[in-house]
UniProtKB/TrEMBL annotation:
Top-level taxon in the UniProt lineage: Bacteria
Family: Belongs to the cytochrome P450 family.
Keyword NAD part of the UniProt annotation: no
Binding site for heme: 301
GO molecular function, a single term: monooxygenase activity
UniProt cross-references to SUPFAM superfamilies, sorted A to Z: Cytochrome P450
Keywords per UniProt: Heme, Iron, Metal-binding
Named cofactor requirement(s): heme
UniProt name for this protein: Cytochrome P450
Length: 360
């Protein structure tokens, strides 16, 4: 637990039973209430349209996006069949790592996700397009002063996507909608899954026994990923505005949910702050509002299956050739993305640690 961590402040408020955590902002932590409210049709995602005209979904945007989501579902859900292809792409990135050295897990995870995740959406990796996505996200995270820069970055990404082929099953939609959909997938599927992968590598480095278990049984990678997402959900806060009264909350109430807070509830997860992937071994299903790194309900993450496949495959590929060891702990993040800022991981050739032990 780190001083000044906004997630810990929220958790402490929840323990004290505080529900009003900001002007008009109500924190919901009870798992049942979380599941009910987050998934109800009156709970609207707050989206601030900061885009240029080209990248706006327009007045019927929500209906169009929901139709796109429905069309994407079978394709994004069937991603497991691509595990072999994913492994090949991860291997290409990991081949650039030194056998012995130090890496920035976030930086390397961004590279893996750009190659594999964006590669899946586009049908082939496209470093130039991923570079534009990266640039747009970086500019968007900066203060308002740079609005002009953001508009230029948005235009550049949109134009590049329109001129690019993609692998989505959206041929029934017009070209503009299709480009917007691909853009949404590329932006939402970049830093967030990279942060999840970076946290997972960070935890693995601190837990050599989990590395050994994955080498012995690659299926254990899924348990490691679920546990890393429990402790470190990259999207650690979710807000929804109610557009109708629900459960005694009046219309217009803004509700705050936190996977970080709920997922460290000792009543559901014994030793809540400990990294214990074994708790997922028998595939237990916690109550829905107790574990929701991908959110819940109609606006939950459509890329969850893709992300879980990508992460599990990456762990197996990395551990084929490398041992991970702790090097530098992360610093606290204050922003919306929870990632292991400033962390470093040491690399050793596989078998190195065991050899070191046997020779004393
Ligand atoms: C471990 C990795 C990931 C995590 C933890 C994650 C988590 C989330 C969460 C919590 C939301 C809801 C955000 C909100 O409503 O405020 C979300 C939305 C979304 N995610 Fe993911 N995500 C991951 C990976 C991906 C990937 C790989 C893709 C794309 C290929 C993706 C695409 C999206 C999209 C398009 C939305 C917006 C859905 C909507 O508003 O209807 N995500 N994600």
């Amino acid at each position: 637990m780190l001083a000044g961590d906004p997630r810990e402040r929220l958790a402490a408020a929840a323990v004290r039973g505080v529900v009003e955590v900001g002007p008009g902002l109500r924190l919901v932590t009870d798992p049942r209430a979380t599941a009910r409210l987050l998934a109800c049709s009156a709970a609207r995602t707050l989206r601030v349209e900061r885009g240029v005209a080209e990248t706006s979904w327009g007045p019927d945007g929500l209906a169009t996006w929901m139709a796109v989501r429905a069309a994407l579902r079978p394709w994004l859900g069937g991603v497991g069949g691509q595990a072999g292809e994913f492994a090949e792409r991860v291997r290409r990135v990991v081949a650039g790592w030194p056998a012995r050295g130090v890496i920035d897990p976030m930086r390397e995870s961004v590279r893996v996700v750009g190659e594999v995740g964006a590669g899946f959406v586009l049908g082939e990796p496209s470093p130039s397009l991923v570079g534009l996505v990266e640039r747009e996200l970086t500019v968007a995270a900066r203060p308002r002063l740079l609005r002009g820069g953001l508009r230029a970055a948005q235009r550049a990404t949109y134009a590049a996507i329109r001129g690019h082929r993609d692998a989505t099953p959206l041929s029934d939609f017009d070209e503009h909608t299709r480009a917007l959909a691909v853009r949404t997938l590329l932006l939402a599927g970049h830093h967030v899954p990279a942060a999840a992968l970076a946290w997972t590598l960070h935890e693995l480095a601190r837990h050599p026994e989990a590395q050994r278990e994955i080498r012995a049984d690659p299926r254990f990678a899924a348990a490691v990923v679920r546990e890393a997402l429990r402790l470190h959900p990259p999207v650690w806060r979710l807000e929804r505005r109610l557009d109708a009264p629900v459960d005694g909350f009046p219309e217009g109430t803004v509700l705050l949910f936190s996977p970080y807070v709920n997922q460290r509830d000792h009543r559901v997860f014994p030793d809540p702050h400990g990294f214990r992937p074994g708790r997922w071994r028998r595939d237990p299903r916690p109550p829905p509002g107790a574990y929701f790194p991908f959110a819940l309900g109609p606006r939950g993450c459509p890329g969850a299956r893709l992300a879980l496949t990508l992460l599990s495959v990456t762990l197996s590929v990395v551990l084929d050739t490398h041992e991970l060891v702790p090097h530098r702990e992360p610093r606290v993040t204050q922003g919306v993305l929870h990632h292991p800022r400033g962390a470093r991981i040491g690399l050793r050739p596989v078998g190195d640690l065991a050899r070191g032990r046997s020779t004393g």
